[in-house]
């Protein structure tokens, strides 16, 4: 038997905790599992389900609804069409033949592309539209690109609850219903933001402005615990999405025979000697979550690679490509590298990082092993970096 968890009168968490999931999208490591949150909102006249769950967990969702004695569902709100929230909708529609899916016009097409949902069972809602349930009403805010183009959030005005789907979420499997009870919530939220939301920093900062004047008691995302101190969450997101970058240097390197490692270590030591905060990463054993998280606070990005078949080491290519895609707000860049008879790594890595529009502060290449001239150049590079960091 699975039970719903009461949030307030006639509002319940009816989702699923995936305690042991290890990766998402075959890309993102889930060090603490995740959850797929779904919420039941009962008005005096109508009942709505906010989002569904990942398809394997639909029996859990339906069991929770059974435990609550839910015989009729009028609406399934699909805030976001990605399948970890929408994939269960066809099965829920089968169980509740009178239910309609509510979603944005953009989501309607995406849902029908991804899932077997008959067109008449989808009702689109406009930005700012209200749907009454009797005594309480759902209000929809379109918020495209958090992180797909069709997304919206749902606001329950009378109860001051924002159902924010992926936004403000965390991949955190926990028995805590509320985030104030979850000891690891902050690092989990930060990692989640870095991996999923950071590329959409600019639209999100506008949505934070829109949410600012709205009264909130709870923010109920679709992953991780419910936020019972919403203003703190909004403030944290404001700091992560602000235009001004953090103050650290990310040094991402890979080395085959030790030359690049010596260069990276010299730079790290030189920066520490200048009181500059450094986050080093060995790209040969990269934890994507930790790396992405460090990018939030980076002001300067340094990539260091040996030359392999004329270009950068594939691990450096992956690290640079990933960084470019995640769009951190770093402003400065630098490169270190080694080669024996020729190299194209400077142009290649700069090209891979081109979306970031970094001001490049220098490149130091060693022919073979680094010697005093290269170490001196690295010290000069450290001077240039330090001059752009708050110390
Ligand atoms: Fe949790 Fe974008 O899905």
Please provide a written account of the structure.
With 391 residues, this protein is of the alpha/beta class. The chain has two domains: 5-241, Ribonuclease Z/Hydroxyacylglutathione hydrolase-like (Metallo-beta-lactamase, Chain A); 248-384, Rossmann fold (3-Layer(aba) Sandwich). 32% of the residues lie in helices and 26% in strands. It has twelve helices and 22 strands. It has helices at 58-67, 83-86, 89-95, 105-114, 185-197, 201-211, 230-241, 259-273, 288-296, 314-326, 345-352, 372-386, and strands spanning 5-8, 11-13, 16-18, 23-24, 28-29, 34-36, 39-42, 47-50, 75-77, 100-103, 122-124, 130-132, 137-142, 152-156, 161-165, 218-221, 248-253, 277-282, 298-308, 311-312, 332-339, 359-367. It has a seven-stranded mixed sheet. A hairpin with a 3-residue loop joins β4 (23-24) and β5 (28-29). It is elongated, with a radius of gyration of 24 Å. It starts with a strand and ends in a 5-residue tail after the last helix. The mean pLDDT is 97. The site of MU-OXO-diiron has 8 residues, from α2.
């Amino acid at each position: 038997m699975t039970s719903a968890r009461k949030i307030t009168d006639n509002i319940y968490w009816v989702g699923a905790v995936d305690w042991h999931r290890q990766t998402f999208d075959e890309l993102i490591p889930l060090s603490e599992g995740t959850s797929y949150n779904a919420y039941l909102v009962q008005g005096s006249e109508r009942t709505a389900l906010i989002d569904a769950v990942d398809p394997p967990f639909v029996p859990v969702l339906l069991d929770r609804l059974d435990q609550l004695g839910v015989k009729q569902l009028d609406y399934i709100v699909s805030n976001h069409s990605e399948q970890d929230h929408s994939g269960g909708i066809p099965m829920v529609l089968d169980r509740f033949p009178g239910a309609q899916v509510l979603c944005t016009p953009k989501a309607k097409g995406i849902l029908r592309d991804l899932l077997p949902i008959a067109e008449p069972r989808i009702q689109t809602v406009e930005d700012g539209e209200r749907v009454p349930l009797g005594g309480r009403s759902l209000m929809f805010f379109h918020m495209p690109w958090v992180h797909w183009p069709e997304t919206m959030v749902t606001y329950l005005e009378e109860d001051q609850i924002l159902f924010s789907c992926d936004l403000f979420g965390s991949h955190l499997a926990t028995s805590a219903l509320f985030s104030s009870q979850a000891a690891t919530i902050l690092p989990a939220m930060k990692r989640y933001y870095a991996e999923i939301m950071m590329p959409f920093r600019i639209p999100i900062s506008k949505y934070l402005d829109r949410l600012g004047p709205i009264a909130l008691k709870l923010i109920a995302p679709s992953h991780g615990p419910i936020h019972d101190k919403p203003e703190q969450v909004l403030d944290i997101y404001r700091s992560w999405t602000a235009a001004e970058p953090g103050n650290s240097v990310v040094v991402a390197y890979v080395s085959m025979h030790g030359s690049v490692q010596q260069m990276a270590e010299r730079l790290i030591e030189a920066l520490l000697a200048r009181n500059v905060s450094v986050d080093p990463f060995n790209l040969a054993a990269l934890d994507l979550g930790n790396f992405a998280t460090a990018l939030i606070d980076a002001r300067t990005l340094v990539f260091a690679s040996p030359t392999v078949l004329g270009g950068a080491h594939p691990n450096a290519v992956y690290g640079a490509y990933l960084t470019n895609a995640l769009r951190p707000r770093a402003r400065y860049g630098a490169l270190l590298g080694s080669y024996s008879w020729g190299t194209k790594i400077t142009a290649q890595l700069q090209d891979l990082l081109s979306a970031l529009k970094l001001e490049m502060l220098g490149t130091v290449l060693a022919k073979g092993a680094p010697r005093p001239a290269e170490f001196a150049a690295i010290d000069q590079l450290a001077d240039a970096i330090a001059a752009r960091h708050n110390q």
